[in-house]
Task: structure prediction
Amino acid sequence: MGQESSNNRRRFEGKVVFITGAARGQGREHAIRFASEGARIIGVDRCEDLPNTHYPLATEEDLAQTVKSVEAAGGAMHADVADVRDLDRLREVFVAGYEKFGRIDVVVANAGIYSPAPVRYATSEQWAETVDTNLTGVFNTVRVAVRRMIEQDQGGAIAITSSIAGLKGMYGSAAYNASKHGVVGFMRSLALELAPHQIRVNTVHPTSVGTPMINNETFPKLVRSDLENPTMDDVADFLRPQQPMNVAWLDASDIADAVLWLCSDEARYVTGVTLPVDGGALLR
Ligand SMILES: NC(=O)c1ccc[n+]([C@@H]2O[C@H](COP(=O)([O-])OP(=O)(O)OC[C@H]3O[C@@H](n4cnc5c(N)ncnc54)[C@H](O)[C@@H]3O)[C@@H](O)[C@H]2O)c1
Result:
């Protein structure tokens, strides 16, 4: 239903949306969906693997594909490589996009990594890589955009992608868990700070989503260590019971539906909210 339901809507006509982690997965889906509703997009992605994250991150080709898909949806995109941990580079790319499009209305802090390691084996490098990307990266993302948004004085919306791991414990991934809880505290403080400017700040909490973050060679071995050569079907058997609605993982479009609504005028007084999109997973 998702995409179909919003096909004729133009909730972001003339608006500019800044998205991190835009090369693939949810970030790409957000870019296409915002563009299909009239927005111009500023998008960044690291486009290079990380030493302690054991699945491939996106590539420059992926980011170029997002640009093509945004254009096919009738939009325009300023896209460039930036790591959310690198404030100066992030600012440089954002400002180039801002100067091209002339305004900023929405920020979607979506870039993230999932790099589990039980605490007794985890290294400082693993911890730092996850927390710097998933928590400090969100701070950096907001920081490069928010002053211009305030000065523009026309309100705005910030959506931060957390996880169900931002609201409950998740075995064996303390750094991810801590970073995804961390953005909730960040969001609550920022929502208070920006409310007088009519800028709303919310977090979205997906359960598993069928993107390369779980659809890769490592994830099946992690969650199905009981099997010799686990497949994504075996992963599905493990994940499905975690959602009372009996779905193994969601589509990126399910998360885009929530993010677009949160950032639209339909949610004009919704701020400071932790919105699960989880098939009921948090009920357990
Ligand atoms: N896939 C899931 O099961 C799931 C579940 C809950 C929450 N999430 C969250 O959703 C968000 C999007 O993830 P996804 O599912 O699209 O996975 P994904 O791996 O397909 O996309 C993440 C994107 O972020 C980019 N990225 C990673 N580190 C970066 C950095 N330091 N700087 C800039 N870009 C960086 C990657 O290259 C990639 O393109 C993440 O914050 C993730 O934690 C994912």
